[in-house]
Structures are given as structure tokens and as C-alpha cells.
Amino acid sequence: MFLNEPEAFEGYTLFNTLRTNTIYLIDNQGREVHRWELGVRTQLARLLENGNLLTLANQGQGRYPSVREVDRNGDILSDCTQGSPHHDFLKMPNGNVLLLSRQRKTPEEVIAAGANPEFIGPDGLVAPHIVEARITGPASCEIVWEWSAWDHLIQDFDSSKANYGEVAEHPELIDLNFHLSETTNYSDPSDWIHSNGIDYNPELDQIVLSPSNFSEVWIIDHSTTRTEAAGSGGGNSGKGGDLLYRWGNPRAYRAGTLADHQLFSSHNPQWIPPGHPGTGNILIFNNGDKSTALPRTYSSVDEIVPPVDGANYRLNPGLAYAPAEPVWTYTAPTPGDFYAHNISGAQRLPNGNTLICDGVHGTLFEVTPTGKNGLEVRQPDDQQRPFAARQAGADGTTEKW
After folding, report:
1. Confidence bin at 183 (pLDDT 50/70/90)
2. What is the pLDDT of residues 128-168, one digit of tens each?
């Protein structure tokens, strides 16, 4: 523990690291309240309102990770593997698990969809796939809803393909050839979009996700049926599974230039929950990316006010989605002192502070709305690399301990 000021929110902080099998719960003095030794590496952990833990467990070579719920003692209560889960997941109010998955498309499938063959390697492309799974037993679950980016493509490279069209006229669709020709800081060239975070808004019945390689956030309608989610009609929005909103890089839908680029390889988008300052706004960890055409060698945490209008979002044709800029931003006093080029995240707390995880350097810190640092915890070994951290007391779970 390096800092604990009176302005810090009083609660417990949950975090795990990418290189150990341990998940920690600590108090504001940096003291360990509890730990879980699960015997498997976990990419992310969430403390549930009942005091149980939800984790993404790496089951070893050749096996897909699974979403596990464990009790205080680490005993497995449910173990769900559906699709190819990675990076992020959550438990929905109905008890189902919402998770990021992926679908791999062969080079033949990708080219048949209108991709420029010049940028397609032997592994094809990976498309984001969001899955909602219902737990059916201690070691079983079933898909009850799903959405795939592959169902919502447009391209203007090959006019012989069915999804050929004017990209600028369809911001609700995903340009298949965007980013394929640009530099990326990820080692897998087939990971075309690289989604890395999701959140669910039960009031809107919508999902926000982070397509990091597009440097945007996207919002989709969850009120659809599985069939509607694969199309462009139905649901509360009337737009099926098409994108309802996108923000951060209007070049991705031909509505801006490099100068309009505001997100850079971002992570951890989330709606600020009810009862918190900024309720309904979206908080984003804006990593920065020195490999882009417009290098940004510092990180920020950005809060935006989406132009929501009922179940849809306002957009003037031919222009970029609002807002023009974040309503609140945190950067270090010397911006380059805070630069986490990957992983990492942030969370708005009930007192208006924001908990920030610099996963690259193993540092957790909390800032006030004016940017004052109220709490700071550093890993003794910065190679531990926490993927993200959550303030457990922010949703009432402190009393479970």
C-alpha cells in the first residue's frame, strides 16, 4: 500500500493476475481479507452479490476456458464452457452468464464474404461472438441467446458479394476490410477486431462491447430473439443485431478523419450503474497505442454521454455519433507517466471516485472527480499484471466478508 487518503472510498478491492493462480480481496490498508487459490490461471474475476466468485478459468492446453462460479472456499458450484470464451464475462440479473466468445472463419469463408485477399492469412479471421448461457447443472450450460459480428458485415471491395455496399451509408454495419491493412499491436493477425470487454444494461436490455482493434465501443440490442440477433429487424430497437451505437473512431464507418480518432485500443467499457455519479454514462479505459498512424503514448479513463433516445441513439446522417468529446477524462498530470498499452480497466464508485487498474505496471489507484489520487496499491512484482480490478464494496458485497 502506497497511499490511502480520506477521500478514498471505503471498501474491498478484488483483483487477480494473469500469471498466478491466486485471486485477492484486500482492504483500504492493503491487508489481505481473503484469497482464492483455484489451481488454474484466471483472466478475470468478479465478486457476486451473494459473496461467490465468478471467474474465467484456463483449463490447460487444448481446452477452452470455462466460466466458473466458486464459493468462499473455492469449491466449484458451476462450470460453463460454451463457444470459445475469452477476456470478459458477467452474470446477468436472470442468473445466466453473458460471455465473450469468438468464431474462426476460414480464408475461403472470409474471401467469400468480400475481404481483400491481400490481408488474409492461412488462419482466416476471428469474429466476435457474444453468448448468453443458462446454467443447467454443476458442469453444464446451454446457449439461450447469441450474437455474431459476422452476421452484420458490409464491404466495398468486391461488388459480386451480397454484402457489398456504401460503407458510409451504413454505420450500423461493420466494414469487413477496415483495419486489415493497418498496423496492430496484437500478435495474431487473424484477430481482426479483438473484442476484450462487455457490459450489460438491464434497463435498456443492451450490451456494450469493446472492439479494441477498431478503437471503438459498440452497443447492440439484447432484447432480440436469436434469429433477430442475426438480422437487421426486431427487438426493442427494431434493428435486430445491427450496431445501435458506436463511438471512438468514426473512420471505421467513413464519418471522420484521423483527427477524429478518440479511442486507442481501449478496454473495459461499462455503463455507470444507478446511484453512482454519472449514472447511464459509459466509462472506458482508453489505453493508447503507439503503433497507430496517430500515436498516443499515454492512457486515459474517459466518460462519455451517449445520445440515447429510447431504445436507439441519435445520429445525423453522414456525421459521427455524439458526443464530440468525453464529459470527464482522467490523465496523469504528466500524461506519459500513465501509459498501459494493453489490459487494464476502470470503475466508477458510489462516492464519485474512479478506481483504475494499470495492469501493465501492476498498479491499482483511485482518483477523485478532480483527479486527486486517493488510494494506490502496487504489486511487489510488476510482472504480475492484473487484468482488471473491482471495488467489491461498491455493490454491497463488503458485508459478505
Report:
1. very low
2. 999 999 999 999 999 999 999 999 999 999 999 999 999 99
Separation of alpha carbons 226 and 224, rounded Å: 6
Asked whether 345 and 197 are in contact (CB, 8 A), the reply is yes
The pLDDT, as a whole number, for residue 394 is: 45
Q: Is 395 helix (H, G, I), strand (E, B) or coil?
A: helix
Cell numbers representing residue 261 in the block = 480518432
Is residue 312 helix, strand or coil? strand
Helix, strand, or coil (residue 387):
coil
Cβ–Cβ < 8 Å for 20, 42: no
Give the pLDDT score at 397: 45
Retrieve residue 266's grid coordinates: 481501449
The SS3 call for residue 5 is coil
C-beta of residue 101 within 8 angstroms of C-beta of residue 130: yes
| Terminal Cα-to-Cα distance of the chain (whole angstroms) | 20
Q: Where are the beta strands (DSSP E) in 174-289?
A: 174-175, 195-201, 206-211, 217-221, 245-247, 267-271, 282-286
Task: Kindly report whether the peptide bond that precedes residue 323 is cis, defined as omega within 30 degrees of 0.
Answer: yes
Find the length of the chain. 401
Evaluate the CA torsion angle 183, 186, 192, 197 in order and state its sign: negative
Q: Name the DSSP class of 360.
A: T
Q: Could you give the C-alpha distances from 202 to 33, 90, 378, in angstroms and in order?
A: 31, 12, 34
Q: Is the Cα dihedral 183, 186, 188, 191 positive or negative?
A: negative
Residue 375 is inside which H or E element, if any? strand 373-378
